[in-house]
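In this supplementary section we document a worked example of the pipeline. Step one takes a protein sequence of length 142 as its only input; no multiple sequence alignment statistics are reported here. Step two produces a three-dimensional model, which step three serialises into structure tokens for compact storage. The input and output of this example are shown verbatim.
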Amino acid sequence: MAEASTIHVDIVSAEGEIFSGPVAMVFAPAIMGELGIAPRHAPLLTLLKAGEVRVRMPDGQEQSFFVGGGALEVQPKRVTVLADTALRARDIDEAAALAAKQRAEEALRDRAGAIEQAEALAELARAAAQLKMIERLRKIRG
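The serialised model returned by step three reads:
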């Protein structure tokens, strides 16, 4: 595929690089809504919320990754996703996500202090985003 029809994407977290390569399109959960980034997209810097980053490969196949939030930078020939946490879709543990959701809900019910409550809300958002992604992938594979 010609270079003009792909854009290089790097998805990295504190644990290291999770994906690097040329793609036809990137979809990411920006704070203000989902973004679709194609080759030659205008430069952009935005924050990401917890959710699914999808990359469409040049052959049309898609790969999915979970990010727990972070930042996205778009340059003329490169997209960089700097994630707080990142996992390949196949590595998401549904039981762990359900347990995290339950712990966060319990912390909110216990009327914890403001800091604990903010942490619980963030954990709840991450767990809910993981579970939503698992459900979407199940429907696709269905």
